[in-house]
Design a protein that fits this description.
The complex is a heterodimer of chains A (about 500) and B (about 325). Chain A folds into three domains: about 5-245, Rossmann fold; about 250-335 and about 420-504, Rossmann fold (3-Layer(aba) Sandwich), CATH 3.40.50; about 345-420, no CATH class. Helix content of chain A is about 35%, strand content about 25%. Chain A has 17 helices and 20 strands. A six-stranded mixed sheet of chain A has the order 6-7-8-3-9-10, sandwiched between helices. Chain A has a six-stranded mixed sheet with strand order 16-17-18-13-19-20, with helices on both faces. In chain A, strands 2-1-4-5 form a four-stranded antiparallel sheet, with helices on one face. The radius of gyration of chain A is 25 Å and the shape is globular. With about 325 residues, chain B is mainly alpha-helical. Chain B has a single domain, classed as Orthogonal Bundle (ABC transporter involved in vitamin B12 uptake, BtuC), CATH 1.10.3470. Chain B has helices at about 1-5, 10-25, 35-60, 65-85, 90-115, 115-135, 145-150, 170-185, 190-200, 200-205, 210-235, 250-260, 270-290, 295-325; strands spanning about 155-160, 165-170. In chain B, strands 1-2 form a two-stranded antiparallel sheet. In chain B, β1 and β2 (about 165-170) form a beta hairpin. Chain B is globular, with a radius of gyration of 21 Å. The chains are: A alpha/beta (about 500), B mainly alpha (about 325). At the A-B interface, loops of A face α9 and α10 of B.
Chain lengths: ~500, ~325
């Protein structure tokens, strides 16, 4: 291979060991100047390690070679990497919420030791100049804390531009954005490319990857599977390359639905949340609810779970009208809600898997004196760990030692241990890789078979499409339409979800 | 105006103003130059130390040991000038050097042990206090040389009736140090990096900021002001006792937090801290002037802290709620 300057970045024969783990195995990775290059792979495939090597945070093993604009480096340091024009935008964005937009953009001024006083005027100019370069406008004096996530993203990108970056590496930039915000971001990235910047885009959302990149490099278990032109690929192919397996994406078959209604909602309304929502879920049925962020889905779910009191309307559980004062009453009545944000709402990370599972049923695990009955705890925990398939050697290990997918399984196990009649899942596969996603889907279908009524709330249209018996699209707090997945294609469903913005 | 009402200092100033009005109408001594000067002079040493605490809180840390640092500085300073003589400059220099040393030791431990500064400075508070008792046996010092005990007034204000009001060195230092602290925080890169550190430590590290240097700086600065404040205190009260300053650390933290600094780090201003100190001082003065038992000072201060943090919490909740609202069609 030539070390041509038409490559912004070339990595050759990269090996990296962490102790006994071979994190990267003879990986070659090259990025052409001016392209959008996607780096994909499941958790633990070596993506992060590769990025750390490019950003100079980690050094590769001996024998690895790095070329930047044709110039050879044995290894990089964070400072050297920045000097050669590489900027990494981490998933958490690394912004300072308490400082103004312009200070954040021009923060590298503070690292220069030539002058010890702050030159606000110069910093502001620098920030304005960088914003102008990529045609974005933000109030430079506003505190970053007050911005939306999408605008914070823009600040992070502008900061990279302000440091004269030529190659911008974005690590999972769309993870916390809504669909509309993602579209805006993708547009911005394409405009950056037109201005001559080189972009390395790390993502696991396949539709995004397909829509913007020219080339895609796939990693799996530290091996490079290959670099492909984006037009040779489709989502199924990438999925297969990433996991090495094929997954069947059979639609739900409606075969477990009985005619017993578990939940019925009549004309439920809450000011500034949702209005006039009516729906029904039967035993063994999976009801999908989708819509853009801010459509009122989560608020509705919380109302069913007793955590967001509705203003008017009626909730019937097994044909009896119920008013829950709090979620304890809802749990007692057989309703479970698995929150979207498992890290802050669903799990106690430093505590053992077993403790996390029995949290909602503590009062069933104790004797009259309030002391734990060890045998009951053990049997409940073992049953669920096995049934749900949590991959762990020991349920006494802290939850934080598990991967995202397995953590999500623990959240599921925890709520299933309450033996609910109705299970509400709010974005159950956020931040979970493909294999784990599919095993969660299988669990959901198993649960329907066991006669649970399930509400599956999700941003991801394919997820709802492939798993639901019926689908509701919510828009601005109302149920816009009800769809049966066999009536339309996945693409049509996607268009109807996004189309809500235009048509209403 | 809308910008003004968003600021914590605005509300604090309103509270102070209403207290001042109430006290002016209910007592005739409060709003006199003499009373106010005396009040602020007696609070100047706590004020000086609160400027140090402000920097520590902004950086995302906390220091409970600075009162012990201050007391050790006082004892060493007093012993040296009583046994070997000297001058005011030397007295402050000794206080400053001892303070910086003990403060920097805090910074060193916090950086390398990597545990919460709360627990580390509780530990050093105990060590410093214990060592102090071991070496001093709890003895009081009051036989200061004459040059130390005479009044140290920077200048004198004379009113139309011929009364004179001295501005003491301690009060003067209080103001100078606040100006210096404001300058550091607003106009120096170190100051801005302290805000950045308190706002997002991981990002500050990725930015390549010298975290160790910044930590040493803020805890060293806290120690420096504890040392200077302690000499100021000795000048005002003319005695040095083991329990004169120790125990006041929570008053200082309360004043700085009332002034708008967050225990989470990243926020706080010098003006706010000044108002916080003023509020604490005025409440203590009010209790004396109105003639109610002194425990009312504690009850009042506690109540004001509860109200103040409730308002902040309420405002934050309101913002969160506004973000969660959905534009229902």
């Amino acid at each position: 291979m030539e070390n041509s300057p038409s490559y912004a970045l070339q990595l050759k024969n990269i090996n990296k060991h962490y102790g006994g783990v071979h994190a990267l195995k003879k990986v070659d990775f090259d990025v052409k100047t001016g392209e959008i290059h996607c780096l994909v792979g499941e958790n633990g495939s070596g993506k992060s390690t590769l990025i750390k090597i490019i950003s100079g945070v980690e050094n590769p093993d001996h024998g690895s070679e790095i070329f930047i604009k044709g110039k050879h480096y044995r290894a990089l340091s964070p400072i050297k990497s920045v000097e050669t024009g590489i900027q990494v935008i981490y998933q958490d964005l690394s912004l300072f919420p308490n400082l103004s937009v312009y200070e954040n953009i021009a923060i590298s001024e503070y690292s220069e030791h030539k002058y010890s006083l702050v030159n606000r005027k110069r910093m502001k100019e620098k920030a304005q100049e960088a914003m102008k370069k990529i045609n974005v406008t933000l109030n430079p004096d506003k505190l970053v804390r007050e911005l939306s996530i999408a605008d914070k993203q823009v600040v992070a990108i502008t900061r990279a531009i302000a440091t004269d970056a030529e190659v911008i590496i974005m690590d999972e930039p769309t993870a916390s954005l809504s669909k509309h915000e993602i579209d805006e971001l993708l547009k911005l990235i394409i405009s950056l490319q037109k201005k001559g910047f080189t972009i390395v885009f790390v993502s696991h959302k396949l539709d995004e990857i397909m829509s913007i990149s020219q080339r895609v490099t796939v990693l799996r278990d530290g091996d490079k599977i290959g670099t492909f032109n984006a037009d040779e690929l489709d989502e199924r192919k990438i999925e297969k390359l990433m996991t090495g397996r094929e997954f069947d994406i059979n639609k739900s078959e409606k075969k477990f639905i009985t005619d017993k209604t578990v939940l019925e909602i009549r004309n439920l309304s809450k000011k500034k949340n949702y209005r006039d929502v009516s729906l029904k879920v039967n035993q063994g049925e999976i009801l999908g609810i989708t819509g853009l962020i801010g459509s009122g889905r989560t608020e509705l779910a919380l109302s069913i779970f007793g955590m967001n009191k509705p203003d008017s309307g009626e909730i019937l559980l097994e044909d009896k009208s119920v008013v829950f004062k709090n979620n304890y009453e809802a749990i007692q009545a057989g309703v479970s809600y698995v929150p979207e944000d498992r890290l802050s709402e669903g799990l106690i990370l430093p505590q053992p898997i077993s403790t996390n599972i029995i949290v909602p049923i503590l009062d069933k695990m104790v004797n009259k004196m309030g002391v734990f009955i060890k045998e009951s705890v053990k049997s409940v925990v073992n049953t669920w760990v096995k049934d749900i398939g949590v991959k762990t050697k020991n349920p006494e290990n802290p939850v934080k030692t598990l991967s995202g997918g397995n953590q999500q399984k623990v959240v599921l196990a925890k709520w299933l241990a309450t033996h609910p009649k109705l299970l509400i899942l709010d974005n159950p596969t956020v931040g979970v890789d493909i294999a784990a996603k599919n095993s969660i889907y299988n669990i959901i279908k198993e649960l329907a078979k066991e006669k649970l009524a399930i509400i599956l709330i999700s941003d991801e249209v394919p997820e709802v499409y492939r798993n639901s018996d019926r689908i509701l699209i919510m828009h601005k707090g109302r149920v816009k339409e009800e769809i049966s997945p066999e009536e339309i294609s996945e693409k049509e469903l996607n268009e109807r979800v996004i189309g809500g913005v235009v048509s209403v | 105006m809308s910008n003004l009402t968003k600021r914590n200092e605005f509300y604090l100033a309103l509270v102070i103003l209403s207290l001042v009005l109430i006290l002016t109408f209910t007592t005739d001594q409060f709003l006199t130059l003499g009373n106010l000067l005396e009040l602020f002079t007696s609070y100047s040493f706590l004020g000086i130390m609160s400027a140090g605490m402000l920097l520590v809180l902004i950086s995302g840390g906390i220091d409970l040991s600075f009162t012990a640092t201050a007391t050790i500085s006082q004892y060493i300073m007093s012993t040296v000038i009583i046994e070997h003589g000297g001058n005011l400059f030397l007295a402050f220099l000794i206080g400053a050097v001892v303070g910086v040393g003990l403060g920097a030791l805090n910074g060193l431990l916090i950086h390398f042990i990597k545990k919460h500064p709360l627990i580390i400075t509780i530990a050093t508070l105990n060590i410093y206090k214990g060592l102090l008792m071991y070496f001093t046996k709890g003895k009081w010092i009051y036989n200061f040389p004459l040059w130390f005990s005479k009044p140290h007034d920077i200048f004198i204000i004379e009113n139309s009736e011929g009364y004179i009001f001295p501005i003491s060195l301690s009060l003067f230092l209080f103001f100078i140090i606040f100006i210096v602290a404001a300058f550091i925080l607003k106009y120096t890169k170190v100051g801005r990096k302290i805000y950045a550190l308190g706002g997002n430590k991981e990002a500050a590290r990725r930015m390549g900021f010298n975290i160790f240097g910044l930590t040493l700086f803020v805890y060293g600065f806290m120690g420096l002001l504890a040392g200077i404040g302690s000499v100021s205190h000795a000048l005002i009260v003319q005695t040095v006792a083991p329990n004169a300053i120790i125990g006041k650390e929570l008053d200082v933290i309360a004043a700085v937090v009332l002034g708008g600094a967050s225990l989470q780090g990243g926020t706080g201003t010098v003006l706010g801290t000044f108002l916080g100190v003023a509020l604490v001082a005025i409440i203590s003065n009010a209790v004396i002037l109105v003639g109610i038992p002194s425990y009312w000072y504690e009850i009042l201060l506690g109540t004001i802290i509860v109200i103040s943090v409730s308002i902040t919490a309420y405002n934050n909740k309101k913002i969160m709620k506004r973000e969660a609202e959905i534009d229902v069609a």
